[in-house]
């Protein structure tokens, strides 16, 4: 099983600041099989990034993903008020599919 | 628009059974694989199970194998999750999720709002 570790656990930032979220895998993940999801309280998760760097439909370009192998990054260039949420990384290149524990981005 | 609507959640005693359903609309259901993903109260996301577009292959998390069974009826655009021998640790919101392709190794591009299962005596 591929274990995903996200850091930091919580990121406290102000609107307009840049957010950098990290995800490390216990073994190499094909870059085509890595995604990021956003979840707001009381809502279902939403796909942000797939294939490590491709934005999903309707996702603004302030969100970007990068990485390969065991290290992946989600960057939010300038935080908007609606971006404060929990972000999960996921690998879907091997079974079982696994998610990271999440990074909460909250308002400083 | 693409929509997934779960139903069938509720309160059940340990050892009991429940069947969840997910009604799909707005896309060609029979072309896409489907997942169930769950989230225990205050916890993160846990992948539960996947079924191929034609029902031909199924995959399960180790924690549910042998107790939960995924199935689909492409004529009714509906996904199911039969849950038997339920345990307290199965308490969670269960999300029906569309894969972005017919097989396992695709991202999860559409999520339902979820249905809550509570296992308690």
Largest sheet properties of chain A:
7 strands, mixed
Number of strands of chain A: 10
Strand count, sense and closure of the main sheet of chain B? Answer: 7 strands, mixed
Order of helices and strands of chain B: EEEEEEEEEEE
Which regions of chain A are unreliable across 5 or more consecutive residues at pLDDT < 50? none
Output the radius of gyration of chain A. Answer: 13 Å
Helix content of chain B: under 10%
Separation of the first and last Cα atoms of chain B: 40 Å
Determine the mean pLDDT of chain A. Answer: 96
Overall strand count of chain B: 11
Q: Tell me the greatest interface.
A: A-B, 25 and 22 residues
Shape of chain B: globular
Terminal CA distance of chain A: 35 Å
Strand content of chain A: over 45%
Estimate the global geometry of chain A from the Cα principal axes: globular
Number of helices of chain B: 0
SSE string of chain A: EEEEEEEEEE
Uncertain segments of chain B are none
Please state the CA-atom Rg of chain B, rounded to the nearest Å: 13 Å
Q: Output the structural class of chain A.
A: mainly beta
């Amino acid at each position: 099983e591929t274990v995903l570790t996200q850091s930091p656990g919580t990121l406290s930032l102000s609107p307009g600041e840049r957010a950098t979220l990290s995800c490390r895998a216990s073994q190499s993940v094909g870059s085509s099989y890595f995604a990021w999801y956003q979840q707001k309280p009381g809502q279902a998760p939403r796909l942000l990034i797939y294939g490590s760097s491709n934005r999903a439909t309707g996702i603004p370009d302030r969100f970007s993903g990068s990485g390969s192998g065991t290290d992946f990054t989600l960057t939010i260039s300038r935080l908007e008020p609606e971006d404060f949420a929990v972000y999960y990384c996921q690998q879907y290149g091997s079974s079982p599919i696994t998610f990271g524990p999440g990074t909460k981005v909250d308002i400083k | 628009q693409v929509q997934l609507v779960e139903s069938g959640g509720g309160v059940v005693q340990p050892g009991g059974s429940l069947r969840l359903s997910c009604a799909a609309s707005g896309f060609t259901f029979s072309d896409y694989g489907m997942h169930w993903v769950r989230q225990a109260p205050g916890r993160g996301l846990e992948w539960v199970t996947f079924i191929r577009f034609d029902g031909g292959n199924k995959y399960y998390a180790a924690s549910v194998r042998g107790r939960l069974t995924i199935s689909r009826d492409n004529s009714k655009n509906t996904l199911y999750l039969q849950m038997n021998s339920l345990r307290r640790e199965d308490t969670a919101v269960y999300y029906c999720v569309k894969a972005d392709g017919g097989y396992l190794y695709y991202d999860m591009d559409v999520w339902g709002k979820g249905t809550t299962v509570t296992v308690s005596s």
